[in-house]
């Protein structure tokens, strides 16, 4: 009777239970959906969106490092004695419309979204019990931003919902106390960080948990392995949740679910472990900056290049936007998102659900990147420059006489090609003017039955 009772009480997960050790946790297979979806949107939003100057690290650069541009900015625009905490009530979000955000995100072609639930400033975008009067319900927006966006995403889109959470907080007295004790005390993770993690997972059930900000403290200080064992074994999202690799000093690019390795990480070659390129449309900042120039933003051509290179090398792209303090997705960000969605509507079959091919980029023609669908025996060659000659030489696909077929996605009909034997093939592209091309920012050849 006792064994049967234990069986009934055991969590109904999809596999064996994981121990709170990296050896056990790292053995957990990454839920397949993450690799299949390929493309997500990061959203950095918080009190730092109020000064909207320099970086989302505004508080640190102004108060701790006392960088001259930040000090001068405050002296010029705010009265003496103004504190960072005084920005809180100014984080108004009066134009925040979760449904509108969800529609824009859906239009981007992204398949998941990661919202900053709390950055290093400690301000939570939900009414956390562990962040009294420094959260979006008690102050500023006076609403649960996380709940609003989670609901809109789940009702109006097919995106998976994820949350970013910073382990440490720059100026939290409990964290500073622990740091002064070389992390031999654990007041901050016990009273603040870990309870918040359990709270957001239980309340919002994110399918991505994007950890960050270890404060130079080891994973043992954060009890990361203990939390992840609960997340994988007993949490409401235990079967589908994916995590990254930022769970304490030394864990990045080594432990966790998928690897991020560094911000804007794009190795340009195939990696043996699933990874993600988290990067920003604004070249200099994750948070919104009101003093940007147009040249500070990546062009759609540059963003498509990032996506194609990343997916060809086995990674996912997490592309960041920074909303304004009043809750708007700035026009330049919306334009880039919709442009990416337009490109993916045509070329998405070369991105979603693909695998890396035996080679990632062409050995003869630069700007050509490959993806692969083994079940369909299809190789995709995404090329970022339309050749003036009207022909595209590919050095890697080996044709099969009487079987190989070539299409340009978005254009009807088969394309003519000539075999170069072991040296590849030459494809004759349609004789089209630029305005007649299916898209202006990158094109895809669909190669069937090639070796």
From TrEMBL:
<feature type="signal peptide">
    <location>
        <begin position="1"/>
        <end position="16"/>
    </location>
</feature>
<dbReference type="GO" id="GO:0004560">
    <property type="term" value="F:alpha-L-fucosidase activity"/>
</dbReference>
<feature type="domain" description="Alpha-L-fucosidase C-terminal">
    <location>
        <begin position="360"/>
        <end position="448"/>
    </location>
</feature>
<dbReference type="Pfam" id="PF01120">
    <property type="entry name" value="Alpha_L_fucos"/>
</dbReference>
<comment type="similarity">
    <text>Belongs to the glycosyl hydrolase 29 family.</text>
</comment>
<dbReference type="InterPro" id="IPR016286">
    <property type="entry name" value="FUC_metazoa-typ"/>
</dbReference>
<comment type="subunit">
    <text>Homotetramer.</text>
</comment>
<dbReference type="InterPro" id="IPR000933">
    <property type="entry name" value="Glyco_hydro_29"/>
</dbReference>
<feature type="domain" description="Glycoside hydrolase family 29 N-terminal">
    <location>
        <begin position="16"/>
        <end position="349"/>
    </location>
</feature>
<protein>
    <recommendedName>
        <fullName>Alpha-L-fucosidase</fullName>
        <ecNumber>3.2.1.51</ecNumber>
    </recommendedName>
</protein>
<dbReference type="GO" id="GO:0016139">
    <property type="term" value="P:glycoside catabolic process"/>
</dbReference>
<dbReference type="InterPro" id="IPR018526">
    <property type="entry name" value="Glyco_hydro_29_CS"/>
</dbReference>
<dbReference type="GO" id="GO:0005764">
    <property type="term" value="C:lysosome"/>
</dbReference>
<dbReference type="InterPro" id="IPR013780">
    <property type="entry name" value="Glyco_hydro_b"/>
</dbReference>
<dbReference type="Pfam" id="PF16757">
    <property type="entry name" value="Fucosidase_C"/>
</dbReference>
<keyword id="KW-0732">Signal</keyword>
<dbReference type="GO" id="GO:0006004">
    <property type="term" value="P:fucose metabolic process"/>
</dbReference>
<feature type="site" description="May be important for catalysis">
    <location>
        <position position="278"/>
    </location>
</feature>
<dbReference type="InterPro" id="IPR031919">
    <property type="entry name" value="Fucosidase_C"/>
</dbReference>
<comment type="function">
    <text>Alpha-L-fucosidase is responsible for hydrolyzing the alpha-1,6-linked fucose joined to the reducing-end N-acetylglucosamine of the carbohydrate moieties of glycoproteins.</text>
</comment>
<dbReference type="InterPro" id="IPR057739">
    <property type="entry name" value="Glyco_hydro_29_N"/>
</dbReference>
<keyword id="KW-0325">Glycoprotein</keyword>
<keyword id="KW-0378">Hydrolase</keyword>
<dbReference type="InterPro" id="IPR017853">
    <property type="entry name" value="GH"/>
</dbReference>
<keyword id="KW-0326">Glycosidase</keyword>
């Amino acid at each position: 009777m006792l064994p049967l009772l234990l069986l009934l009480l055991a969590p109904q997960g999809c596999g064996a239970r994981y121990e709170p050790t990296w050896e056990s946790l790292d053995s957990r297979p990454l839920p397949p959906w993450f690799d299949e979806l390929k493309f997500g949107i990061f959203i950095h939003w918080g009190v730092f969106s109020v000064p909207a100057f320099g970086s989302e690290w505004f508080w640190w650069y102004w108060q701790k490092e006392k960088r001259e541009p930040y000090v001068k900015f405050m002296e010029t625009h705010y009265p003496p004695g103004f504190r960072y905490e005084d920005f809180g009530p100014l984080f108004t979000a009066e134009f925040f419309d979760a449904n509108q955000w969800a529609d824009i995100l859906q239009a981007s072609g992204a398949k998941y979204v990661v919202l900053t639930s709390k950055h290093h400033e400690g301000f939570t975008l939900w009414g956390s019990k562990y962040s009294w009067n420094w959260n979006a319900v008690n102050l500023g927006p006076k609403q649960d931003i996380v709940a609003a966006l989670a609901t809109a995403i789940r009702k109006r889109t097919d995106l998976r919902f994820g949350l970013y959470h910073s382990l440490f907080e720059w100026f939290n007295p409990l964290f500073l106390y622990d740091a002064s004790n070389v992390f031999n005390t654990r007041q901050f993770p016990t009273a603040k960080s870990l309870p918040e993690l359990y709270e957001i997972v239980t309340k919002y059930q994110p399918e991505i948990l994007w950890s960050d900000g270890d404060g130079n403290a080891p994973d043992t200080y954060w009890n990361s392995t203990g939390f992840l064992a609960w997340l994988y074994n007993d949490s409401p999202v235990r079967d589908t949740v994916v995590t990254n690799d930022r769970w304490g000093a030394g864990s990045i690019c080594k432990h966790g679910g998928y690897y991020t390795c560094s911000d804007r990480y794009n190795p340009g070659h195939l990696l043996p472990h699933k990874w993600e390129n988290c990067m920003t449309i604004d070249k200099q900042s994750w948070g919104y900056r009101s003093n940007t120039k147009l040249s500070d933003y990546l062009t759609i051509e540059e963003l498509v290049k990032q996506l194609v290179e990343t997916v060809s090398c086995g990674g996912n792209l997490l592309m960041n936007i920074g909303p304004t303090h009043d809750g708007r997705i700035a026009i330049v960000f919306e334009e880039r998102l919709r442009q990416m969605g337009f490109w993916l509507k045509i070329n998405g079959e070369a991105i979603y659900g693909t695998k890396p091919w035996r080679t990632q980029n062409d050995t003869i023609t630069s700007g050509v990147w490959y993806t692969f669908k083994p079940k369909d025996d299809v190789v995709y060659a995404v090329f970022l420059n339309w050749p003036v000659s009207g022909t595209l030489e590919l050095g890697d696909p080996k044709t099969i006489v009487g079987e190989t077929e070539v299409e340009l996605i978005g254009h009807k009909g088969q394309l003519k090609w000539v075999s170069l034997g072991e040296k590849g093939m030459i494809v004759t592209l349609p004789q089209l003017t630029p305005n007649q091309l299916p898209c202006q920012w990158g094109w895809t050849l669909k190669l069937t039955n090639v070796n």
